[in-house]
Write a structure and sequence with these properties.
This protein has 113 residues and is mainly α. It is built from one helix and no strands. The protein has a domain at 50-111. Helices cover 91% and strands 0% of the residues. The chain crosses the membrane at residues 44-65. Keywords: Membrane, Transmembrane, Transmembrane helix.
C-alpha cells in the first residue's frame, strides 16, 4: 500500500490522522463495551420482569385454589345449617302438634267438668 507523503508536512499529517483514528477506534471500542454491558443489564431486567410475572401468576393461581377451597367449605357449612334448620323445623312441627293435642285435651276436660 502506498501513501502519498508530503516530504515536509505530509508525513506529520498522516501520523496525526492515524493517531486520531486510533483514538476514535479506541473510543468506539469503549462505547461498544459499555453498550454491551447496558444490553446485558437490560436482558437481566427483562428476565427479572418475566420471573416476577411468573411468580405473580403462581400466586394468583394459588389464591384461586384457596378461594375455591373456602367456597367449598362455605357451601358445606350452608348445607349443614339448612339441614339443621330443617331438623329443628320438623321438631317444632311435632311439638306444635303435641301442644295442640294437649290444648284440645285440656279444653275437652274443662267441658266435662
Amino acid at each position: 500500500m502506498t501513501l502519498p507523503l508530503n516530504p515536509i508536512l505530509g508525513g506529520a499529517d498522516l501520523v496525526t490522522d492515524l493517531v486520531g483514528h486510533g483514538i476514535t477506534i479506541d473510543k468506539l471500542g469503549k462505547i461498544q463495551n459499555k453498550l454491551s454491558s447496558v444490553l446485558n443489564l437490560t436482558q437481566l431486567a427483562a428476565g427479572a420482569s418475566i420471573l416476577n410475572i411468573g411468580v405473580s401468576i403462581a400466586g394468583f393461581a394459588y389464591m384461586g385454589f384457596k378461594l375455591h377451597q373456602i367456597q367449598n367449605a362455605l357451601d358445606n357449612v350452608q348445607k349443614s345449617l339448612e339441614a339443621g334448620f330443617n331438623r329443628v323445623e320438623k321438631r317444632l312441627d311435632n311439638l306444635s302438634g303435641q301442644l295442640v293435642y294437649l290444648h284440645l285435651l285440656v279444653e275437652g276436660y274443662e267441658l266435662f267438668e
